[in-house]
Every structure is written in structure tokens, then in C-alpha cells.
# Entry
Amino acid sequence: HGCVTACVALASSDLGTDLGAWSSGTLYLLYTLCALLGANAIVHYTGAKYGIASALLFYCAYIASFIVARKTDGEVKWVSAVLGSVIGGVAAGYLWTAQGPFMQAAAQLYAPFVEDDKSDQLLKKSERMSTARLKANSLFAALFGCVYLLAESFMKVLSTWIPTQFDGGETTVYVVFTIISVLSAFAMVFVSDLTAVVRASK
# Structure
């Protein structure tokens, strides 16, 4: 996601004012429509883990579209940029929906490890478990937010540093970001399906 937000920041300056506006506008329009109308159905079909993995994979199309747009002109440039934004927007629309149940499952599995907090000993067992889940959710939300923002900031710094170090300029940025995105999507396949683990433990 850090790679995508870095590309969004580069869209207007790299693709030109008109195409950059169309690219970003299409990305956010499809993101909104997918989140409102299709995200739940997609995640219901894919499950949380493969919803995240597939969305990350489709994100790669958005980033790679910048490579094509920089190397082409005319209609091909426009089609590649806008099509990449369509795919990226749909991916973003259900990525966040898939992340929700995945993090909830992680918090549910971690909750027993914080249930024995001495400050909660006066509570009933059901209340202790509920409190433990809230604590686990808060912890994971904080960790996610921290890692997410650090990665996003790092990618934006990287997008300004790479062109000064390599001959390919901004094209090298998009190549590097595409590689990082593909590896991230591929790595997600090997992450345990925590929602399945929770269902199996019931």
C-alpha cells in the first residue's frame, strides 16, 4: 500500500495534469464504488487471507501501469494509466474489508495471552475475555497503524531518492515498487489463514 500511495503522489507530476487527474480520479471512484457495493461479496467469496493476497496482487497492476504510461504515448498511454487505476481502485475497495476480519481473528487468538492482567481479576470470566479482546484489538490497531505509516513514509522517501541515484529516473521507481508489491502479494500466500484458525478452535 505504501508503494501505491507513493505512486498516487507522483501521478500528476509524472503523467501530466490531465491524465494524472483522470488516473487518480478513477482510482478513488472505483475504490469508493467497490467498497460500497462489492467488497463484502468479494471477501465472502475469497475469504480474508486470499482477499488480502489478491488485492495486493491487483495493486501491482496499478503500479505497473505507470511503467507502460511512461514508455508510450497517445491512446496507449491513457488506456494503460486509466485501466491500471480501475484495477487498483477495485483492489483497494476490498483490501480494507478483508483486513478487518483478519485483524479481528488475530486479536481473538491473542486475547487469552492478555486475559490474566491483574487489573482485571475482579471481573467475571466473560467480562475478562471481552476486555482482553478490546486490549488485543487496540494493540494490533496501534501496531498496524505504526507499521503502515512508517512503510508509506519510507516509500515516499524512496520515490524521491531513487531517481537521483539511477539513470532510469522515475521509471526505476515504478520498477522497484512493482517488484516490492509482487513480492508482498506472494508472501501473503504463506501467511496463516487466521480466520480459519479461529473457526477451527471453536
